[in-house]
Amino acid sequence: MRAAKASGLDAFGYNRSMDGVEAARFDGFDASNSLDGVLDRAAQADALIVLAVPMPALPIMLDHIRSTAPDCALTDVTSVKGAVLQAVRKHGLADRFVGGHPMAGTAHSGWAAGDAKLFVGAPWVLSVDDGVDPAVWATVMHLALACGSFVVPARSDEHDAAAAAISHLPHLLAETLAATAGHVPLAFALAAGSFRDGTRVAATAPDLVRAMCEANSEQLLGSLDQAIDLLTRARASLAGSGSVAELVETGHAARMRYDSFSRPQILTTTIGAPDWRDELAAAGRAGGVIRSALPVLGSPG
Amino acid sequence: MRAAKASGLDAFGYNRSMDGVEAARFDGFDASNSLDGVLDRAAQADALIVLAVPMPALPIMLDHIRSTAPDCALTDVTSVKGAVLQAVRKHGLADRFVGGHPMAGTAHSGWAAGDAKLFVGAPWVLSVDDGVDPAVWATVMHLALACGSFVVPARSDEHDAAAAAISHLPHLLAETLAATAGHVPLAFALAAGSFRDGTRVAATAPDLVRAMCEANSEQLLGSLDQAIDLLTRARASLAGSGSVAELVETGHAARMRYDSFSRPQILTTTIGAPDWRDELAAAGRAGGVIRSALPVLGSPG
User: Fold this and answer.
1) Rounded distance between C-alpha atoms, residue B293 and residue B272, angstroms
2) CB contact under 8 A, A192 and B224
3) Is Membrane given among the entry's keywords (chains A, B) (predicted)?
4) What 8-state DSSP symbol labels residue B164?
5) Chain A interface mutation, best of B81, B103, B157, B190, highest count of A Cβ atoms under 10 Å
6) Which of A24, B135, B162, B282 is most buried, most CB within 10 Å of its CB?
7) Would you call A198 and B195 a contact, using CB atoms and an 8 Å cutoff?
8) How many percent of chain A have pLDDT more than 70?
9) Which domains does chain A have, with CATH numbers?
10) pLDDT tens digit sequence for B41-50
C-alpha cells in the first residue's frame, strides 16, 4: 500500500489487526479491519485486489472475495505459485487472477516493517499460466512497474521449480552442512569463510525455513533428488578413482554461466497477441525482464 | 619468510624458480635456488625447516632433507596433515617433525603474492600427534606466534576430519547447488542471496578444489556419507509426511552453537609435561587457542 500510494496510485487496505489498521491510518493511509466492507468498496471501484496473506489464510480470503468481489482483478504476493493457483481455481476465481511474487522482503512483519521503496530494483514474477487474462495481466504489470520493480514473466510451475533450486535447496544444504560439521570435534574451532557462507541461511528461524520448503514440497523433492544423485556419484568417484572432477567441473561451469547471466529487456511482445503467454514465458526463462510497460492488444499505446 | 623476518627472526629460503629467488633478493631477502646449499646451511645453523610446497613436491624435498639436514627441526604449512605425516614417517623424519597448517592464504602464488601480515590473527594449527617432540613443538609455536597467529593444537587425523567438514564438504555442496540449479530453466533469472552465498566457493578454480578434496579423500568420504544420509532422510520425510523438521532443526541448532562458540585461551599446559599432547588436543577440540607462548618443561620461563 505504501509503494502503490507513493507511485500515485489510489490504494486502500484491509488488515485483521486493529493495531495495524490504526498504525496505517496514523500514517495517513486508508485502512480498515472490515474485510467485507473493503471488498465491497473494491467491487464498487473495480479495484485490483492484492492478496498479501500467508498460505493458511488464503482459503478464507478467497471465500470472501467470491461472495463480495468476484469480478475484481486479483493477484497475490506469495512465494509459492502453484499452490496459490490451485486454491484460486478451486474457488472459481481463476479467470480474473494473475499470480505474482515480488522477490523482496524483510525478516520483520507488521505495519512498521513496511517501506515504500521495498520493491525498487527487485524482480517481481508475474505468472503467464495458460488462460491468464491480458487486461488483468497488464494491470498487475503496471502495479509492479509503478512500485519500481522489473517484471519477470514465468509459468507458476516453472517459478516453483526454480524457487526450489535457488532458494529451498540452498536452505537444506546449509542445514546439512551445519549438522554435519556439528558432529565433528574441532570443526567449529577451524571453521572459516567457506563454512560461514555455506551455513549463513541455517541461522534463519526453523519455522520460516520449514514453511517455505514444505509449501513447495513437490518441486523441492525433484531438486533434492538431483542434489543427492550428484553427491552420491561424486562419492562413488572419490572412493573408486580418487577424483571429484565431474562434480567440480559441472558446478564450476554452472556458476560461471550464472556470473555471466544477463537480463535483456523484453520489448517486442504485445500482451494479448497470439501466443503472448508462451512468448513471455520463453523470454523470462532466458533471463528477459520487463522494465517499461508492454503494449496491450486493442488498447491505445 | 617475510613474516618471520618482520618479527625479527633470522630467515633464509629456497625456491626452485630463479625468478622468484631474484625477486626475493631484490626485496632484501636471503634466498637461493640451490636446494642442497640451503639445506646444508640449515644443518649448520640447526635451523627450523618450514616446508611450503604442494603435496606432489613433498617426497623429493624429504629425500633431500634426509640426505643433507636430517637432524633439523621440521614443519610444514600444507592444508592436509595426515598424508604429510605419512610421507614424513616413510622418510624416517618423524622424530623432528611437527605438522602445521596456518589457515590463511590468497588465491595467488609466487613471491609477489606474499605479505608479512598474512598470518596476523589467523589460526595456525599445530599437530599434537603421538610422539611429537616438545622442543620442536615449542620452536614451531614460537614461529606461529611471532607471525601474529594464534595456535590451535590438534591431532592430524582430527584436523583432516574437521577440514573435510568445514572446508571440503562446503565446496562440494556449493558445486552441487550450482550444478542442480544449472539444469532448471528460470533458476538463474530468479537467483538471489541464498543462491549467491551457497555457490560462492563454486567460483574457485576447479583444479584447486579437486586438489584439496582429493588429497583428503579418506576424511571427505565420511563427511559426504553424513551429508548424503541427512539429505536422504529429509527427502524421505518430506515425501512421506511433508516435513523437513528434523534436518532444519538439527542444522539450525548446530549453526547457533557455532555462533556462540568461544575461543578460550590455553594457559595452564606445560609443553613436555606428562600427557601434554592429549591435554592440548582436548583443549583445541573445545575451541582453546594459544595466544602467548606456553612454558616448556625444563626450560627457563
Assistant:
1) 13
2) no
3) no
4) I
5) B190
6) B162
7) no
8) 99
9) 2-154+262-285 (3.40.50.720), 160-259 (1.10.3660.10)
10) 999 999 999 9
